Amino acid sequence: MTENVKYPAVIAARRQSKDRLRRRRAEQRFRSYGMVAVAVSLIFLVGLFATIFSKAYTALGQTEIALEIHFDEALIDPEGTRNPTTLARANYDALVKISLGKLFPEIKDRRGRRALRKIMSAGAAFELREMVLADQGLIGGRRTVWLPASDDADMYIKGLVAGGLQHGNRIDAQQAAWLDKLENREQLAQRFNWRLFMAADSREPELAGLRGAAVGSLLTLSICLVIAFPLGVMTAVYLEEFAPRNRWTDLIEVNINNLAAVPSIVFGLLGLAVLLGFLGLPRSAPLVGGMVLALMTLPTVIIAGRAALQAVPPSIRDAAFGIGASPMQVVAHHVLPLAMPGILTGTIIGMARALGETAPLLMIGMVAFIVDVPTSPTDPATVLPVQIFLWADAPERAFAERTAAAIVVLLAFLIVMNLAAVLLRRRFEQRW
Amino acid sequence: MSNLLIIIAILALAAIGFRMGRGRALALAGGHAKALHSLPNHYGGYVLLWCGLPALALIAIWLALEPPAIRWLVLSALPSDLKALPAERLALIYDNIHNLARGIDLGTSDAAMSEAAQRYLGLRQIAVVSLAVISLMVAGAGLWRGWRVVAPTFAARRAVERSIRVALIVSSTLAVFTTIGIVLSLLFETIRFFEKVPVWDFLFGLDWSPQTALRTDQVGSSGRFGAVPIFAGTLLISVIAMAVAVPAGLFSAIYLAEYAAKPVRDVIKPVLEILAGIPTVVYGFFAALTVAPLIRDAGGFFGLDVSSESALAAGVVMGIMIIPFISSLSDDVITAVPQSLREASYGLGATRSETIRQVVLPAALPGIISSILLALSRAIGETMIVVMAAGLAANLTANPFEAVTTVTVQIATLLVGDQEFDSAKTLAAFALGLVLFVVTLGLNLVALVTVRKYREKYD
Amino acid sequence: MLKQSLALAALAAVMITNAAAARDQIRVVGSSTVFPFATAVAEHFGKTSSFKTPVVESTGSGGGLKLFCAGLGVDYPDITNASRRIKTSEVQRCAKNGVVNIVEVKIGFDGIVLANSRKSGLMSISLKQLFLALAKDVPVDGKLVANPYMTWRDIDVSLPMSKIEVLGPPPTSGTRDAFVELALEGGAKTFPMLAAMRKADKKRFKAVAHTLREDGAFIEAGENDNLIVQKLETNPAAFGIFGFSFLDQNADKLQGSRVNGSMPEFEAIAAGQYPVSRSLYFYVKKAHVGTVPGLRDFVAEFTADKAWGPDGYLADKGLIPLPDAERAKVRAQAAALANLSM
C-alpha cells in the first residue's frame, strides 16, 4: 500500500475505479428500481387474474338434467289451431312437472312435488317454449331434452354450497338425494354453459348470458370511438400546432384538463340534462351512452395527443417547412404520423376506461335489466360493466361465479383492444 | 332507414365529386400536376366539400325540424275537442297516433285518431321523398359549383385548408361547451341546495352527517352538511394513490423506454394497460376483501389499530389501477426524446441512469407532468373502490388507517338513494359536484402556469 | 382522415335526430331493493306472453319517482318501484306535471336482518339492546350521553364479548331508513325516559331514536349487500344489516340474529312476528294503460299468485308475501286500476 503513494497516477486510477464502481452500482440500482416497478404491477395483475379465473372457471359448466318430455297437444294447443299466440302462452311448466313426476313416481304429496320442481330451472319451461315456437312439428311427440337445473341444484352439484340437513340450506337432504340419484343414473351432467355466451340477461342465474351486454358494449364503444377519436385528435392538433397563445386557448386548455378530473357520474348528469332532456334522445340507448362516454374520454385523448405532438422534435417540422409544405401538410404528413403511437396509447387508455365505466350510464338509464339483444344504437341496451355491477349485486349465489366469468369476458375485450393498439403502434413507432 | 340511404347516396356523390375535381384539374393542366397551383387531391377535396357539406348540413337541420313540424301538422288537424286537451294529454294522444301508425292498436282509438295516423303516415312519406329530392339537388348543385371553379391557377389548397382549420377550431371548442353544460346541469340544483343549507356551513363545516329524515313525518336528526371532511378524504386517498402510482409508473416507464428489450416492451406495455381497463368493481372487491383485511392484520401485528375500512387499502389499490396512465403515457414521451440527446450525453461519459436523470427526464418533463395530472384526475374521479374498501364514513383525519370518504362516492350514493328527490340530501350531490369542479379548475390553473414556466423544447 | 371523420361525425349527428319513435315496451324504474323482484316478473312476463320483455332500471326510489313524475307520454317511465311509500310532496310534483292518476300496488315485505358469520355464535338480542348498541346517544342514569358501549358484553352479559362492529347501509338507503324506524325507534320506546320524551317532544325523541352512532362502531358500507356478506365471512366478529334475500341465499355461511325472540325466517316475517320488516311498492301511471301495450297484463302478472303468492317465484327470490286477505284486496284494486289515496 505505502509504496503506491509515490505514484499519484495509480491513486487517481484507483479513485477512478472506485468512482466507476459507485456509478455502476447506481446504474444497477436505478435499473432494478424499474424492474421492481414493472414486477409490482405485473404481480398485482397476475394476482387479480388468478382470483378472477379461479372463481370464473366453474361458470363454464352448467348442470343439466335429461328429461323425457311429452309435448302433449292437449296441454300446449288443445284446440289444435297452431296459433302462435296460443303456443306462446301455453303452460310449458306442466310438461316439466309431468316429466319430473315420471322420474320419481314415488313422490305423491304436494310438498314433495314442489320440492322436486325446484331442482329444475324455471327456464326449463322457457326453453321448451322456444323449441315449440321454432318447430311446431314437436307437438304430440316425445323427446329427451337436456334442460338446465336450478341455480341451487347447480351450486350443490358443483360443491359451491353445502346441501343437506343443516337448517336453512337451499337444497335440503331430500333434494340432495334426488340429485345424487340422477347423477348416478347419468341423467344429470355438467355440460358446457353455452347460455353464458349466447343468451342475454336473465334473473335466473342458470339462464343468464352476456350476449346482450357484449353487443351493447360493442355498439356503445363504437359510437364513443367514432366521436372521441377524431374530435380528440383534431382538438389536440389545433391546440398544439395552430392555436395562437391567447386567453381563449388558455381557457380551452384549462377546461380540458379540468374535464379530465370531473367525476364520471357528472357526465351522466350532463347526458341526462342535455342529450335526453334537451335533444330528446331515447333513454337507455347505446347512442347516448356512447356520446356520454365520448365526452368523458375526450380529455384523455386530447391530453395524450398533445403530449405526443409535443414530443415530435421541432426539426421535423422545420425540415418539412423547408421543402415548402403548408402548415396543414406539415401536420398531416409528418407530425401526426409520428405522434400517432402516443395518440393511440391515449385513445386505448381512454377507451379501456370507457369500456369499464358504470356510473355515468346510471343516469341515462343503461343500468337496467334488458332481455332483448340490441340491434341498433337506439335500442335499449346495457353494457358489460353494468352487467357485472348488476350481477355482483344480485342475491343469488350462482351469480358470483357468473360475475367472475363476465369479468373474464370483459378482460378478453380489453386484450383484443390492446392487441389492436399494439399492431397499430408497431406500424407507426420510430425513434429518432 | 331511408334517411341513412340518402346520406349514403350523398357521401357516394361526394366521393364521385372528389374524383371529378381531381380529374378536371389534371385534365386542365394537361396531365402535368406541376402546372397546378395545388396538388390534384386538393382540387378533389374542394369539390368533395362543396358537394357534401351543404347537403349534409341541410339534412341535419331538416331532420331536427321534421318531427316537431309533423307533430304540429297532425295535431292541428285533430277535431277541436281533442285539441282542447291539456298539453300532457295531447302528448299521450300523439303517442297513440304513433302507435297506430306503427300498427299497434290497443283498442283505445277512435275514427279521428286513425285518420290522424293516416295523415301522419302520409306526411312522413312526403317528408322522406322531398328530403331525398332536395338534398340530392343541393349536393348536385354543390358539386357543379365546386367543379366549375377548378382551374390550374385556383388556390384549392388554401380553400381546403381553411375549412379544415375551421373544423379544428370548432372541435376544440367542444370542451368549453361541455364545461358550460356541466356547470348548467349542476347549477340550478346547487342553488336550491344552498337555499336549504347555508353556503358557509357547506364549504367550511367540519361535520358531514346527512342523517336527515327520508320522510316528512320523521325529523332530521343530525343533518349536517360540512364538506370539509369529504374533501380532506379525497385528498388523503389521492395522495396515497399517487404515492403508489407515481414511483411505480415512472420507473416502469423508464425501464420500458430505456432498458427493456423491444420485444419485452412490446408485451409488457399493453399488459400494463390492461390494469386501467379492469372494471373498478373488481378492484373494489379486491381492495375490500383481500387488501383491507391484509392491512388490518398487518397493522394488528405491529400493534396499530387499523380499521377494516381504511383509506390505505383503497388508496393503494387505486394507485395500482392508475399506474398505466403514468407508465404508458410517460413511456411514449420518453421514447420520443431524440436519440441525439442521449448520444451526446453518452459521449460525455455519462452512464445510462445519469443520462436518464439529467437529460432524458428533463426533456420529457412536460409530458410526464400531464400524464401524472391525468392519473390524479382519474384518482379524484374514482368511486367504486372507495365505496367498497373505505366505506362512507366522513371522518376528518389524516390517519391513513382510518375510514374516510371521497366527493365522488358521496355524489354517487346521494344520487341513487331512496330519499325524496328534492331533499337536501340529493341536492347536496349537485353542490358537491360543482364545488369539486371549481376546486379542480383552480388546481388546473395553477398547474397550467407552472407547467408553462418549465416547459422546454429540445431537439 | 380528417374528411372521413368529419363525414362520420355528420352521419352520427344525423342519425341522432332520427331516433325518437314510439315505444312498444314497458319501462320500469326505481328502487334497487325491488329490482330483483320486478326483473323476475318482467322476465316471466316476457317469456310467457306475446309482449316484449319490459326494461327495468335500477335508479333508487327517489330517482325513480323523479323520472316517473316528470310527465306523461312514451318518453317517461310507466312504472316506478319504491322501497318506501310515495310522499305527498312527490304526489304534488307528479300532479304538477300532469301525472294525476297513479295506481299504488303493495307487493310484499322485505325483512331486514342482523347477521353474522356461522363461525361465531348465534346472537339473541332485543330491540332495546340493539338501540343501546347502535344509537348515537343513549340514556344512562336518566341522562342522554354519547354511546359509551364498546363491546356487546358491555350492554348485557348474555351478548358476545366482541367489539361492536356493524356494517350497514348509508343514510340514503331505504333499508337504513326502515331499520332505524323499526329497530332503533322500537328499542328507544322501551326506555321510560325516552317514552316520556316521545309524548312531550316528539321531534326530539325522533332525533334521538333515529341517529346512528358515528364513532366507527356502525360502519356505513355501500349499497352492495354481497360485499357486506363477504366482509362478514372474512371478519367473524362483525355483524351486518341487509335484506332477507341475501341471508336466504347465504344461509350456509351466515346466521341471522334472533331479534326479540324471533328468528329472521320466511314464515316468521310473513306472519309479522319478526319485528324488522318493511313494505315494498310499485306505482303505475294509469294514463299509460291505453298507450303502452301490455301494461295491464304486466300488473296482472305481478299480482298473480304464481308470482307474489307464498309459493310463487318471487318468494323463491326472497320476497315475503302479503297475508292472503291483503293480497286479494290489493290484487282487486290493481286490476281495477284504483287511484292512489294518501
Averaged pLDDT of chain B, please? 85
Oligomeric description of these chains: heterotrimer
- The CATH topology of the largest domain in chain A comes to MetI-like fold
The proportion of strand residues of chain A reads 5-15%
Distance N to C terminus of chain A: 50 Å
First and last CA, distance of chain B? 53 Å
Enumerate the strands of the largest sheet of chain B in spatial order, edge to edge or round the barrel.
Answer: 1-2
What characterizes the major β-sheet of chain B?
Answer: 2 strands, antiparallel
| Strand fraction of chain B | under 5%
The biggest sheet of chain A amounts to: 3 strands, antiparallel
List the total number of helices of chain B. 16
Rg of chain B computed from alpha carbons, rounded to a whole number of angstroms: 31 Å
CATH topology of the largest domain in chain B: MetI-like fold
> Which superfamily, in CATH terms, is the homologous superfamily of the largest domain in chain A?
MetI-like
Low-confidence stretches of chain B: 214-222
* Order of strands, widest sheet of chain A: 2-1-3
Structural domains of chain B: how many: 2
Kindly state the number of beta strands of chain B: 2
What class would the helix/strand composition of chain A place it in? mainly alpha
